[in-house]
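Hi there,

I know you've been waiting on this one. I reran it after we fixed the sequence typo, so this is the corrected version. Both the input and the resulting structure follow.
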Amino acid sequence: MEEGRQISKRLSYTAKFKREVIRCAEDKGNSKAAAVFGVDESNVRLWRKHKAAISGCEASRKKFTGPKKGRFPENDDAVFTFFHDRRKTGLFVSYDLLREEAIRKARSLNIPRSRSKASKGWVIRLMRRMGLALRLWTTICQKLPKDFEQKF
């Protein structure tokens, strides 16, 4: 490591702060704004480049990751529909079932096998993207035995 050079910690900034920096940079320039607010000039350039997105969001927002999509959204949608259809009918859903359905749907969409392996990790990431969980549905309470009153 070079002497005199420090490794800076990664920070996240709110959109409100970024707007202030952008305003200052438009008046005084990128390097002056960076010095005034204590951020890297590269950040100022990047924020000015994305000014429309930063100015059009809520002030407390920190990151702009965009929509979460898989490589093959039509395959994801088919697996999502399969998941909900199984759940509606009260049938269980497992990682293996979702993998098999993904592979089956990929074949019907002519997606090469090498491009859609549908591993367990892929299924977990799909479920995270779609907001799904494998928890079992339970009934409100246990059903009592038929001869409960006689025994009681």
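Quick highlight: Residues 21 and 33 are 6 Å apart (CA to CA).

Best,
R. S.
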